[in-house]
Design brief:
Shape: globular
Structural class: alpha/beta
Radius of gyration: 27 Å
Helix content: 55-70%
Strand content: 5-15%
Number of strands: 11
Oligomer: single chain
Largest sheet: 6 strands, mixed
Length: 609
């Protein structure tokens, strides 16, 4: 697919009058909407802003590439805008941005359009293309510049494929290879959370700089279309070193014993020369694979990251792997409620056999895996494969022990860093037991210690068997409040939520009253710094009021039904606690949530009419 099949005359805004970043986003989103590319303008804009909150898409060199991959996109498209004066876009180099490409990708989009988007990202690293676009005077001229650059990029890709095939054929036949095995050969892996723009811009910035320096380089990209240019074992054995420019987890054990430098993907774009010089420095200590089979010395490969960036990277690795389960399970459970509030219950007069099976798939399977997957992939992000088992077990214990979503996050970080500590402590063991580390020593110690700490330190005590109902009373009231509060906030602060989000009001009320806290997880995952504290405060207030008023719930689950069945004499007091806690969390979250833009409000109104 050619880039100009996505970038068309009706998605081009030649002269942007916007004076700030938000103005640019508003203009380009509206341009896409006018061209009929969006089904939900507010949802798409929210996705664009969510991507910007992770890290700026102003990549420097006068370019910004805001992008989102979301269901609100009807058909893949690219919007282009230009500002001669320049706009402060909080770019990586601190300079104003003049050229803006907004990428709109639908969820589950075809590989052809993903390839076109990747090609565009690479093209924009060419100085001549940027200069030509800056001086273009019409949409037709913009399209011609992009078309010409597309042709050149296609020729380069074909040439690279031919060279790679020739090299592979030579290696396979065992014939003399024209490649000098002593010349520098550098590998790189680039990856970003959406896998649309930064992944490929880092690739092209690194390759362009490598060409200038006379260094041969092969780059593996982990993008939306999967892994491209996969680094073979032959590549790795031959390489002087490896650059990993990524904001998501990349498998690193394969680079054991190599000179490895790990940095955020943005560094691959803005400082490629420095990274290449670093990875060519043979005096650096080699990378030690986290799997534990390496004979090499301690690693200096990881460049230091701030605590906030490291925390975010590990958390997002867990969240991104958890979200498909949340979405699938939540939709299935919402469908079940269409059959009746108790249609999944065989003992109810509303029972429906098909609804029961959907409930089993959504609630008892997909939702049951949410927290273990979250924990497991957080731990894996920190400690690679050795941390995964302990993370999964910690997540399961967070469920059984009642610490839930917060407990799952704690379990993931606990398992990951414990595993790292165990690796460090056992690094001096005899070589004879080296092979037992990843299969026996690491999992046994990390699973055991993580499990014990979750049971005795982080989970509430299981006190029902001792006749003490206070912990489960507070836990149930507190656990019911987040979904109820999210739903209430969407009613009180209607214009701060998209139409799609407000569509979950009824399911959240049903889940909250049923003590299914997971209804709040999509909101907590998307905006943890506002949602989680708000929910913690309201849940704490609700639990405290329930205990103070004498509520006594003697069942581990069930929500309002078991409250009425086991503590009917205090039902009014419990309801008061629920209402007060819900209002506290809803109001706190609603006030903390940022206002939407004028265009989002208008779009939301239009969809409600």
């Amino acid at each position: 697919m050619r880039i100009t099949e996505l970038l068309t005359k009706d998605t081009i805004a030649m002269d942007l009058s916007a004076s700030d970043k938000n103005g640019v986003i508003d203009k380009l989103v509206n341009q896409l909407d006018k061209a009929g590319k969006l089904s939900d303008i507010a949802q798409f804009k929210e996705a664009i802003h969510n991507r910007e909150s992770q890290s700026t898409t102003g990549i420097g060199e006068g370019i910004a590439i805001p992008h989102a991959k979301v269901a609100a996109v009807k058909s893949p498209a690219i919007a282009f805008g230009k500002s001669k004066e320049g706009v402060d876009y909080q770019s990586l180099d601190g300079q104003p941005a003049h050229l803006f490409f907004m990428i709109a990708a639908p969820e589950g989009g075809a590989q052809t359009h993903l390839d076109a988007l990747a090609k565009l990202s690479g093209i924009l690293m060419d100085d001549k293309v940027r200069e030509s676009l800056l001086h273009a005077n019409s949409p037709e001229e913009v399209l011609q510049i992009i078309d010409n650059a597309d042709d050149e990029a296609t020729k380069e890709e074909e040439k690279e494929v031919q060279e790679q095939e020739a090299a592979t054929a030579g290696a396979t036949s065992g014939s003399a290879n024209t490649t000098d095995t002593n010349e520098p050969y550098v590998l790189a892996v680039t990856a970003c959370p959406t896998g649309i723009a930064h992944t490929y811009m880092a690739r092209d910035a690194l390759k362009k700089q490598a060409d200038k320096m006379g260094v041969k380089m092969k780059v593996e990209t982990n993008g939306s279309g999967g892994i491209k240019k996969h680094l073979t074992q032959q590549d790795i054995e031959r390489a002087t070193g490896v650059i990993i420019a990524a904001d998501v987890h990349v498998e690193t054990d394969r680079f054991d014993g190599k000179n490895v430098v790990e940095v955020p993907v943005a560094d691959g774009i803005k400082r490629p020369e420095e990274l290449i010089n670093t990875v060519l420095d043979t005096s650096r200590k080699p990378f030690v694979a986290r799997g534990g089979n390496s004979k090499s010395t301690d690693s200096e490969s990881n460049e230091k990251q701030s605590f906030g960036k490291a925390f975010y990277k590990h958390l997002m690795n867990g969240v991104s792997n958890m979200l498909p389960l949340v979405i699938a399970g939540g939709i299935l459970m919402a469908i079940v409620f269409l059959f009746g509030a108790n249609s999944f219950d065989p003992k109810s007069s509303e029972h429906n056999a098909f609804a029961e099976q959907l409930w089993n798939i959504g609630n008892k399977s997909a939702f049951a895996l949410i927290i273990p997957i979250l924990s497991g992939f957080i731990a894996r992000s920190i400690a690679d494969k050795p941390g995964f088992a302990a993370g999964l077990v910690g997540g399961m214990l967070a469920i059984s022990g009642g610490s839930g979503f917060i407990g799952g996050i704690i379990a993931g970080f606990l398992a990951g860093y414990l595993t790292q500590g165990i690796k460090y402590i056992t690094r001096g063991l005899p070589q004879a037991v080296e092979g037992l580390k990843p299969t026996l020593i690491y999992p046994l110690l990390s699973v055991t210690i993580t499990g014990l700490l979750m049971i005795y330190a982080f989970n509430p005590p299981a006190a029902l068997t001792e006749g003490n109902a206070a912990p489960i009373t507070a836990a149930m009231v507190g656990g019911m409040i987040p979904p109820l509060a999210i739903a209430t906030a969407m009613i009180f602060f209607k214009r701060k939520f998209t139409k799609e989000q407000r569509g979950s009001i009824v399911p959240n009320y049903v889940m909250g009253l049923s003590f299914i806290t997971e209804g709040a997880i999509p909101f907590a995952a998307a905006d943890p710094l506002r949602v989680i504290p708000s929910m913690m405060v309201g849940s704490g207030v609700g639990g405290a009021i329930a205990l103070a008023l004498g509520s006594r719930i003697n069942a581990p689950h069930g929500g309002i039904i078991v409250i009425a069945a086991t503590d009917f004499s205090h039902i009014l007091q419990t309801l008061i606690a629920l209402i007060v806690g819900t209002l506290v969390s809803a109001i706190m979250y609603g006030l903390l949530k940022p206002k939407v833009t004028k265009n989002e409000i208008e779009a939301s109104k239009a969809m409600d009419e």
